[in-house]
Amino acid sequence: MGILETATNWIRFVAGATQAQLPSHGSDLSVDQCDRIPFIRKGYRHANTVSESILSCFTLSNEAANIWSHGVSSLVYIGLLCESLREACGGESGQHVHLIREQYVPLLLQMFGVWVCVTCSCLAHIFGCVSRWHCRAMFILDYFGINFSTTASALALYAYTRPMDPGTGNFATFSMRAFFSIALASHLSVFTMQCCMNFVFRPAEHIKVIVVAAFTASFSVNALPLLSRYLSGETQPSDLYHCLHLACSALGGLCLATHLPERLAPDCFYVLHSHSLMHIGTVVGAYYQGLALQLDMPRWRELPSRPSLANMACVMAVYTVSAGLLGYWIAYGKLKTVDRGDQDRTTFKTASAKKIR
Ligand SMILES: [Zn+2]
Fold this sequence. Notes:
Blueprint: H1 2-21, H2 50-55, H3 64-88, H4 105-127, H5 132-161, H6 176-200, H7 208-231, H8 239-258, H9 274-296, H10 309-334, H11 346-356
Helix pairs in contact: 3-4, 3-9, 4-5, 4-9, 5-6, 5-7, 5-10, 6-7, 6-10, 8-9
The structure holds zinc ion (ZN).
Residues 66, 121, 125, 275, 279 line the site of zinc ion.
């Protein structure tokens, strides 16, 4: 009986929420500043609980393209990861299944990084509208995912794309430990800066330049091995895909920085706006980077001072623990006073009462 009652209540709740509580469009005046997107005047979601925010994904809101672009990408990347793992484990033959070929590890790491990034981003965009606290805390998760992905890409790019000739005096002479330390420090700094700019020192519009500079620095660190290969005069079939990755990322970044196209026509581009175009650019760019890395993968065996599985695991573990602890400290320490929900909402009251007990 208990299950039947719960199911009936759930159906009633879904029906009620979709009919009455979830208007697909809302004005910007009715939403928290945290949710507000510059130049966008409509399409804001009015979800006050976790269940409502999940239901609101099916409405044509200004978060729909953000949620679905990375939600679908997350599912696609699970498929791609499984396919690459199957290949790495010995393909169709079924022999040596226990032994993942070492050269696949950096590629799998890059793909896993992209999956973490798009999944965290999708969750952040779904649940960010629940309350001011959810908005800020969920975007810590988003920033964690972005920098997890850039750290993983840095390791994969180092593993496959350094110049073959160590005598050129370029990046080949750069030690692995030095590059891994620079990459780790750079991506952890960007994560810290993003969190501080958005959650501790808000409003932060006037320091956008610093955030853009941090992103560029982070991107440049990742590009060091590849840049060194170009400077050494070595050309590879993967060069086109690396350029396409750069072009997609740059276009997405440009849209985000300039608030185009919604700046020109806010009422037309409230679903497909600069942030969602950046999402699409990021995911298409990451796919091209994956294709480029697949082409570069055979070089791995010939390159000097190859990073071991332990080296890469260590960098990713340090990033995950450091960023995780920092994110947790900000969400549960710095955001203590931020509203976790409207006190009038019965669902929130019940949840709080349960927590207190
Ligand atoms: Zn996003």
